[in-house]
Design goal:
This protein is α/β, with parallel strands linked by helices. It is 21% helix and 35% strand. The chain is globular and about 50 Å long. The chain binds flavin-adenine dinucleotide (FAD) and NADP nicotinamide-adenine-dinucleotide phosphate. NADP nicotinamide-adenine-dinucleotide phosphate binds at residues 16, 18, 68, 70-71, 114-115, 142-145, 148, 173-174, 184-186, 214, 216-217, 220.
Length: 248
């Protein structure tokens, strides 16, 4: 049984009508970058709980979560309605295996995300530890609209901080947007545009691919990487090239 602690909302950023970030103070146990907590609210006497990835570095006590309001969703609209100073419940211990310890050595680590799925990568990169064994890091954030690229300034700061080791790439699917590729991740891998834009090859011999966010994106990309690039899902007992986290 999970232990629950009470947290206090210290800051809210409303990026768009449907995307927002919560900052929370809570007495949680230390988590590993890439993991998630469960957030909960008592709604009509019942605790409704869902998983949300930590965005902050584990070394930062300002806990941060990046959310989208799912229309008709049970919890996300209630979390979107929280105000600074409100309380919510969090699991004391984080969970999940979408962490660097599970990733084998490789030349280029590709961190591909859609929507709020960028969260775990921001936690990993903001902490910036245990990345020496990768020569290159690539962070890709795919969103419907240019204005949904909420963390682009932080991505740009990270790119500067990593001094050439990290390359960032925005992808926007529903409009043309400056400095972004237009389309969807699997199609942009298939037609070579993602690698051309980033300037690195995505091959089984040199790459490991992390996928996070929309489950259909995860499935479609896995399928493509298997068929076109000869890659396989990474398992502890059978090393491969793809590690994924699906948000629903
Ligand atoms: C490991 C893990 C980590 C997650 N991390 C995050 C996170 O950092 N940020 C975040 O916003 N969500 C995250 N989610 C999704 C989150 O747990 C909830 O599913 C989401 O907030 C919807 O909850 P709800 O009660 O509002 O909707 P529900 O009433 O539970 O309705 C669920 C339906 O909404 C749709 N849905 C669920 N999540 C999404 C989504 N993110 N985008 C689009 N449609 C969705 C699906 O169709 C699903 O069947 C994560 C999920 C998992 C499993
Ligand atoms: N983003 C918004 O402005 C907005 C506004 C109101 C409500 N919402 C709600 O919020 C929820 C999540 O929206 P979201 O925009 O964060 O997430 P999303 O629907 O998962 O879209 C994020 C990105 O993933 C892409 N994608 C979707 N399916 C894919 C696939 N099979 N392969 C590759 N890429 C794929 C989308 O491309 P496509 O554009 O081609 O689908 C988009 O670029 C939805 O329930 C939505 O109704 C979103």
């Amino acid at each position: 049984m999970a232990n629950w602690v009470t947290g206090k909302v210290t800051d809210i950023t409303n990026w768009t009508d449907s995307l927002f970030s919560l900052k929370v103070h809570a007495p949680i146990e230390k988590f590993t970058a890439g993991q998630f907590a469960k957030l909960g609210l008592e709604i009509e006497g019942v605790r409704i709980q869902r998983a949300y990835s930590y965005v902050n570095s584990p070394d930062d006590n300002n806990l941060e979560f990046y959310l989208v309001t799912v229309p008709e969703g049970k919890l996300s609209p209630k979390l979107a309605a929280l105000k600074t100073g409100d309380e919510l419940l969090l699991t004391e211990q984080a969970a999940g295996f979408f962490v660097l310890d599970e990733i084998p050595d490789c030349q280029t680590l590709w961190m591909l995300s859609t929507g709020t799925g960028i969260g775990p990568y921001l936690s990993i990169l903001q902490q910036g530890k245990n990345l020496e064994r990768f020569e290159n890091l690539v962070l890709v954030h795919a969103a419907r609209w240019g204005n949904d690229l909420s963390y682009l300034p932080i991505m740009q700061n990270l790119e500067e901080k990593f001094q050439g080791k990290l390359r960032i790439q925005a992808v926007v699917s529903r409009e043309k947007w400056p400095n972004s590729l237009m389309g969807r991740i699997p199609a942009l891998i298939e037609n070579g545009k993602l690698e051309a834009s980033v300037g690195l090859p995505m091959q089984a011999e040199n790459s490991h691919i992390m996928l996070c966010g929309n489950p259909q994106m995860v499935r479609d990309t896995q399928q493509l990487l298997k068929e076109q690039r000869g890659m396989a899902k990474h398992l502890r007992r059978k090393p491969g090239h793809i590690t994924s986290e699906q948000y629903w």
